[in-house]
Amino acid sequence: MPGERLTADDFTRSPVDCARGLVGARFRWNGCSGRVVEVEAYAAEGDPACHTFSRPSARRFVAAHPPGTAYVYLNYGVHWLFNILVAGPEGAGFVLFRALEPLTGVAAMRRRRARRDLRELCSGPGKLTQALAIREEAHGREFLGGGRCGLWREDPAGGIQASPRIGISRARELEWRFTLRDSPFLSAPAPGGTR
Questions:
Q1: What's the confidence (pLDDT) of residue 193?
Q2: N or C: which end of the chain has fewer CB within 10 A?
């Protein structure tokens, strides 16, 4: 059984602390669920890889929404990406969900992804949103308070590994990618680990 349900109050810490704390959590979305095995943190201030660095609309989003709100955008016109807004005394930012270990609703995920292998269903931020049918209508949604969608705290058995973020061209040196150690469901191997 999942542990304690996370609320917006759990997202009033720094993006890095929030990201690390989400590894191992259970993420539910419209009848499907998965264990969070890979996330990345992005800071609203001073992080050239964050949307707020170059997009006024992202800065307005941070100013207008409470912590825990879904920030969903279309990446390169191809894949929807799912983030959670973080805003606390240490600063605001986002946590990008990069990969899940599928747990429930697997048949629906396989149908949406047209894949059978569990490791191919949610092993990347675009695959994850396709498998869970997360699209633009989720943008701005406060989903942590109740209902069928949300996050539940679970122990990240196996430990958490920090490494540089991937898939970006700026601020790649920051070790703000957090993965469940040795998970076979990652989007790409963590340094020194396996996929």
A1: 52
A2: N
